[in-house]
Amino acid sequence: MQTREALSLVLRDKGFRITPQREKILDIFFSLPEGEHLSAEDLQNILNGQSSDISLATSYRTLKLLASLGVLRELDFTEDHKHYELARSDAGIQHQHIICVECGTTQEFTSLEVFNASVSIADEAGFEFTDAQLKIFGRCQQCQQSKLKEAAAS
Amino acid sequence: MQTREALSLVLRDKGFRITPQREKILDIFFSLPEGEHLSAEDLQNILNGQSSDISLATSYRTLKLLASLGVLRELDFTEDHKHYELARSDAGIQHQHIICVECGTTQEFTSLEVFNASVSIADEAGFEFTDAQLKIFGRCQQCQQSKLKEAAAS
DNA sequence: ATAACTGCAAACAATTTGCATCCTT
DNA sequence: AAGGATGCAAATTGTTTGCAGTTAT
After folding, report:
1. For B59, what's the count of Cα atoms within 13 Å in the CB-facing half-sphere?
2. Measured distance CA(B48)–CA(B46) in Å, rounded
3. In chain B, whose CA is at the least distance from the CA of A75?
4. DSSP-derived 3-state class of residue A85
5. Which nucleotide is nearest to A18 (CA to C1')?
6. How would you write the pLDDT of chain A (154 residues) with one tens digit per residue?
7. Separation of CA A8 and C1' C8 in angstroms?
8. Domain with B41 in it
9. Domain identity same for A10 and A75
C-alpha cells in the first residue's frame, strides 16, 4: 500500500518530473472511494469541478504514464473507453468486477482463489506475473426480475 | 457445441433474418482454428481475400448482433479494438488469455478452477452467470530474457 | 540551461449512423 | 408488400500527436 507521496517518488525515480498536473491527478485517485474507477472523461469532469485547467491531452498522457508505471490499473470493460483505478498494492491481489450484461452495472469482489490460480497459471506458462483481471458477466438480480415481469405481462 | 446451421436458427428464432452476409461471417468463424479471435478489420481482410463484398458497416453490425445473441464472445484486450470469437459452448467453460505486457503476445489456457470460482462468485452476488473472462498480464519468457541481456550490456 | 511537460488544435482510428435501395419473409 | 438488412459516405467518439511556449530539475 503506497502513500500519495511515495507515488510521486516513483515518478522521480524513473526520471519523470513531478508536475502540479500529475500531483493533482494522483490526489484525485487517492481521494476516490476504494474500488472506484474513472475514465479519462470522468477525470476531466472532476478536474473541471475543481476548476483545474488541466487539458484533456494531459489527462490522457498522465493516465497512460501512470498505468505504464504500474501506479494505475487500466481496465477494459465492454464499453468504448478505458477506466483507471489506483493499483493499491504492487502485483498483489486486486479486486475484480462482475458486470450485468443487461444494465451494465458493475460490482466488485476479491477472490484469493482466482488470484492464486492466476499466479500459478502464469508460472506454468513461463510468465512473470503482473496482474490478473477477471470480468464475470451475468444478469443481475434486478434485471432477472424485470425479465420475469415482462414474461408475466405478455 | 452448436453447429453452423443451429446458429442460423438462433437468428431466425429471435426474429432476425438469415442473409448471405450473416451466413458468410458465421462460416468464417466456424472455419477458424479453435481459440482464434478476429477484429472487425481482420474479418474484413478475410472477406476481401475471398472476394466477398460485405461492407465494413455490415461486418460491425453483424459482429455486434451475434455477440448480443451470445453466438460470439466479445473480447477486450488492451488494444484499441475489440476481438470476437465463437462462443463454442453456451455458458460453458471458455478459454482465457495470458498477455505479455512487454510484447503483447497472447496465449490461451483453460482453467476449471477459475471457471468454477466464477460461477459461484456470480451466484453469491445474485447474478445469473453468463461468461467469465480472465486476462492475466505478465512478462513472457522471451521478454524476461531480453531484459536480462539489456542489463548485462549496460 | 535544457530536456521534459503542457495546452491547443489538428489528426487519427475504430465504430456508428442516416438514408436510399434491396431482399428475406 | 413490408419491414428488416445492406452499402455508402458522412458523422461520432475516444485517443493521440506536432508544435510552440512553459517549467521542473
Report:
1. 21
2. 5
3. B78
4. strand
5. D24
6. 578 788 888 899 999 999 999 999 999 999 999 888 999 999 999 999 998 889 999 999 999 999 999 999 999 988 889 999 998 776 678 899 999 988 888 899 999 999 999 999 999 999 999 999 999 999 999 889 876 766 555 4
7. 27
8. 1-90
9. yes
- Say if B77 is an interface residue toward chain A (CB within 8 Å): yes
What would the grid cell of residue B105 be? 503476445
Q: Which residue has the cell 447474478?
A: B127
CATH number at residue A129: 3.30.1490.190
Co-location of B98 and B135 in the same domain: yes
Examine the domain organization and report whether B60 and B96 are in the same domain: no
Q: Counting one residue from A and one from B, how many pairs have CB atoms under 8 Å apart? A: 107
Residues A99 and A82 in one domain: no
CA distance B140 to B102: 8
Domain count, chain B: 2
Interchain contact, B122 vs A138, CB within 8 Å:
yes
Residue B31, burial from CB neighbour count under 10 angstroms (0-12, 13-18, 19+): exposed
Domain boundary among A59, A90, A121: A90
